[in-house]
């Protein structure tokens, strides 16, 4: 573990004491977001120490020119990345002419940050002695409104403790910002208009290349000694607009600045009326006022928690961890817009481009399906349907034809953004996850309509890809898939990755099955789809031949499927025998050494056993788990959760709990020593799965919820809610057993440890 | 074939007619060099059309910061690249105030370039009508002196044809130059001192980071109407110095400018006395004069040709091709300095960094050994001995220990410069070529002393590497080498590349053998080396175990060793069945598609059959050739020569000749459509091998030269000379048979078609 400065608390993330070395980590951990925008926990006032500035707007990205050593045919020309957006939070403070800057203060006491997850606000407070000897106390509260998602609010309360002074508070907007991960130091923003209007300011700027038009806006008011302070005439530069509240403050007196700010964007407004739209929302929120707005915030978060909370008794750190994960997921994506998706770092950093990965399908959809509703999950599926044509183009670039679709590894708008050949061209199993999510959605929601309406076309494109991507090996007399990278990215360009071959076969079979079902049940849709895709029976016969004759590497000696051809040629030394000094491998070993080692970054063969667990016996799972887990280094944030679920299934609750701890507090305790770059948002959904699917053993079998609840030894109890086909079920697991409480009007039968249990609304059933 | 504008000629490369689209290609083809410096055939006067400027100084490079998409542990921090050096050739011409610029001339007639390979000079002549209607005629002759290798000379003769005019000729130096392949647009040169002194000018500049100090110098004189013109006072800017010769020229009158220029560098002089050194060489050459200098040039080239020429009768294009190759090799490296080596593009372009590859050991050493002498070959071996410590450091970076050495893929000073993991970390067979060159050197020269003095230490480092790099596969019960890239770079990260495994085994065995020999014959050296390397018998026992139990992939069905594990799983469609539109694959296919195809970029398994041909029967060669060649796309310039030699050995002279044509005129006919970037210098040595080892079948067997001469049908005869252990043998092959002429004083026995032939000095023996 790297850090443990976060104070354990059931509902809040708390930091106490000022430590400059923690500033960037805390900027990530105390990030706030509302699905439409996000803000790292940067200070409002000047900070001259190391800091990583980050303000982000959902769906606003920049296609940065690809940077590679040697260009390879088929590389995308750009890497779309989330943009550091114009700064709206800034409030510079100057006292007797000297700027307040915690980096230069001679003393900082009672420094405290709190991210109140229950109510959705963030507060920072401190007492500091400035170089000029002036002692100040500040309490700064900030939130991004869930209800008015274009706006954030800040209350900056400043007291001067030891003398009478002159204070200037200068709220500002700044579009002269940069991305730290810029490839070529390009300008990302073009500022076109700066307006100052009384207590309000506006900067219109559009992104280069993508031309997203945005208006960054603010409105600020101030009170000193409970009397309003008027702003003096605003200042403008090429990329900045600021107001100044100048006032005298007596010793012990307080200055309070209220600032509203945020963004209006052309995804939601006419691009010529962004200032108008900004004025409207400012009129609205300023009428409600800071305190009123905070009330709506508390209410909105209460609604979210009402459905998505997991309560844990007896383990405050575990409780804090799971709530942090659920909170961050909801800060990132709320399911209201099918044009948006869930970036691996959400709105908390630049890395991974804020783009969409297969993480969404493999990890996030189950969380959103169960804690929101089927519409939200459907929106995430539709996101990929909307990108189908681009996926077909992407496959064409790589030489595939006839409507074969390869979904990108990383994308903003459907185009591939990634540019390492071993990933971009070879980590093609991602295509399988897109199909699996369709299956998973129907399995959970029972809503078949998505398949005839949209899903089937996606399934056809994917089946076509696998059919063309496999080739017949005369030598083996079977179909093989050569040159791939599996989920375990510590192997590149391998042949017959079992997981890839397995999901390829499954994708084809599932597509054929759905074609039959749609043909029978939705003849009009069928006709439309056949007309559009020109699919013939000859073609599906060919698909079938590939699926029926797929090769799977297998070791008789070990009784396991092999991760890939040749796996047994490696030096099979378990991770436990590696010196600690050589971990993490990705920081200590050269890439070739990692590649030829047996070490596994994240579940690979076991990912297949997770997705398709009903295809295998528990004994088979045990064998594979015991074979592969000892070689697994879990150096991906997506690794521990799958292993936790499987360990729980195998009744190894101690091991399951260890994996759970690692996933739930990955960022809070900074296991990977990189939290300052941002949080691992998508893997947070894995933490939720560890409890719900792992400890509670939730499965959908034959349209019914099933549970096999277990409790980690250290816990007294846990409980969570599931929205299953629009019925809300609360599950509580204690040392004594488990109980189930159904809301709504209809009864529902579930299975607990294989036994059928009939639940009536309002009744709590012990099982 | 892409182009055929080069006029066939036995001794010259000739271009006739001005075509702007050919300027960059011709700049490469007409490049001149003298081993110490090189110059693309850029125009002396201004040219505003597309051009690729290039002046290069041997051994002067810049470590450009590595550019990659995603950094991988173990990557080198920089890529050393040959530098575009300050321009010394420039002579701007202005007539009646208008600059002479062939790009703006309204008419260009009788444009001609000639690169006279026999005598080592380059001449460009033309008649042009300028936009102001003035008609001029120019003849410009240029060469880089072999004798005074810091200097080049230019004679610029200008006539005005249609009126009386005012002419200004402005010879200049310019250090404000850039590399086109710069990764980050860094400045590569820092100009520190500019001096103008009468008819001379000097620019002192040093390279950034590497701090190579250089002085670029010039001296110019001019005559008009046979009377000397005095230069007016010189002009200086931050990076430029120029002289001006202003004169009136009557219609039909001639202005002649003589310019000497070049570089003095701190590899050869005190860095504080570079201008002094420049003045000295200028004193020397100006005293000799342009014509005198040209005479020494003709003499020096005659000496080179005397030994290294291959004369072909009956095929002028083949003759031109082979002489072009021999000429360029000699322009690039003359064997006088063990700090220098042979870059794949020599002094003709920027690409591939002008650095050293395994090409030197695999292709160039045989040429230099046979056409120069053993000292030259030894200098090339010593280059690697000097880099042994860096090779050990390089291996350490990748996790190897105990003095294991991995020579870099690309280097300037012994450090690795390459940064694609599949090459840098995995194309480790290069280490084998370094060891093979030591064996090859001894086989050819009979000079064993290199091994105890230097070679054995290299062999130990390399053997240690292979021992550590192989691992025991419990599954196979043999040693395997996982995760490599073979010579065929169209496969990456494969397991058990046969060539790599084979050369690894050979390296270990050869090292052990030499250890024994040195122990017996050179006990003092042995003691020194053991003391230095701490080699024990326990360690060599371990090496032996690896060599004795190395695994080699083999197909019983086909009776061939497999290029790598899993090769037979590919779709084995021969190249002949690929549509032409899909070639070359590296421009038409995405990288993943190339990787999973069976197509071979250059000899891989067959490279092993070339190096170790005496380990295999001719029947085995035939089988492997027939199996692999049909999948070979020869998209590396290093591919055709090995195949040509093997086809000749198999008695397939038609095929051998086809391969020969492809290699010998690769650049002249621009097969790869990239000649404008520079010439393929190292593969030119392969062309020489195609004739000497291929057609003439030269081999060294048991300390004797062997020949099995054949003649391509189209040719009447060919002849070449070999310096075999300081005896010069001239071999002539005609339709009637072959003849052998020995110079010197001692007799020598050779074998021709297996028959022993005793040669007496001065006698020509028919065989």
UniProtKB/TrEMBL annotation, chains A, B:
Domain spans labelled Glycoside hydrolase family 65 C-terminal: 698-759
Domain of life: Bacteria
Gene3D superfamilies per record: 1.50.10.10, Glycoside hydrolase, family 65, N-terminal domain (2.70.98.40), Maltose phosphorylase, domain 3 (2.60.420.10)
Active site: 489
GO biological process: carbohydrate metabolic process
Binding site for substrate: 358-359, 601-602
Domain Glycoside hydrolase family 65 N-terminal span(s) in chain numbering: 14-266
GO molecular function: carbohydrate binding; glycosyltransferase activity; hydrolase activity, hydrolyzing O-glycosyl compounds
Pfam families: Glyco_hydro_65C, Glyco_hydro_65m, Glyco_hydro_65N
Domain Glycoside hydrolase family 65 central catalytic stretches: 323-689
PANTHER family listed in its UniProt record: GLYCOSYL HYDROLASE-RELATED, MALTOSE PHOSPHORYLASE
Family affiliation: Belongs to the glycosyl hydrolase 65 family.
Name assigned to this protein: Maltose phosphorylase
Species this chain originates from: Flagellimonas lutaonensis
